[in-house]
Specification:
single chain, 2 strands, disordered C terminus, 9 helices, mainly alpha, two-stranded antiparallel ribbon
């Protein structure tokens, strides 16, 4: 119903082209998820004459730039949130945990919410890292891709036939 099912070949292609390069950021994200990843710039008396603005950690910005250029970005990410009634990080985590290859687009929508949404509401960039959403989405995408390649069975699917 208005929802497209992504083919296995498309998922594997996106995994190799887009997710694998982003996996290099996982150790950094998991190590820094509890740290402040942005600070307000207040040098040279800027707060007296202008608004302070956030300065983000360089590695986070590299991840955001690289993810933003990838085909993982879904400009209709808001529909993933409204269709699945996502309103909190717990809702997002539950959807990520229960994702299968058939709901790959949901994972792309959640990632897009933070990466693309952060362009207008920049706090989303650090929120995605602090709530560990980036790591969860990437790990789930990896798990799904590996199960499709036959490397490991994916929860909810028969390892031999790929049928649920």
């Amino acid at each position: 119903m208005g929802q497209t099912v992504t083919s296995r070949e498309t998922i594997l292609q996106e995994y190799h082209d887009c997710v694998e390069p982003l996996m290099t950021y996982l150790p950094w994200m998991e190590q820094h998820s509890t740290e402040a990843l942005s600070v307000l710039y207040k040098e040279q008396g800027i707060s007296e004459h202008s608004l302070s603005f956030p300065v983000y950690e360089g590695t986070l910005m590299q991840f955001i730039r690289e993810a933003g250029k990838s085909s993982l970005m879904d400009r209709n990410y808001r529909y993933v949130y409204s269709r699945n009634r996502l309103g909190s990080h717990e809702d997002e985590r539950l959807l990520i945990e229960n994702a299968t290859w058939r709901t790959w687009d949901h994972l792309k929508g959640i990632l897009s919410w933070y990466v693309l949404g952060g362009r207008t509401k920049a706090v989303l960039w650090t929120e995605g890292a602090r709530a560990n959403i980036y790591s969860l989405v990437l790990r789930k995408m990896q798990s799904i891709a590996l199960s499709l390649m036959g490397t490991q069975p994916h929860a909810g699917e028969d390892a031999v036939s790929g049928q649920e």
